[in-house]
Known about the structure:
Layout: H1 6-21, H2 26-33, H3 37-44, H4 52-62
Amino acid sequence: MTNSRQPYKQVSKKIASFRKRKGLSQEKLALNADLNRAYIGYIERGERKPTVSTLAKIAKALGVKLDQLFQP
């Protein structure tokens, strides 16, 4: 993994963690965030680099603040 992917990998793990704690499927999170379910999967696996606006949609759908996705 390159260094440029490291922050995305950490954010992707946080998204998956919050989603699972909330009892949401990837499909339900995608629906709530107005995103494609497959895209949520790509993000959680660290295969896509989402924009800040996409991360904001995900955070809102998870009921967390955007900055929480970046906290260790």
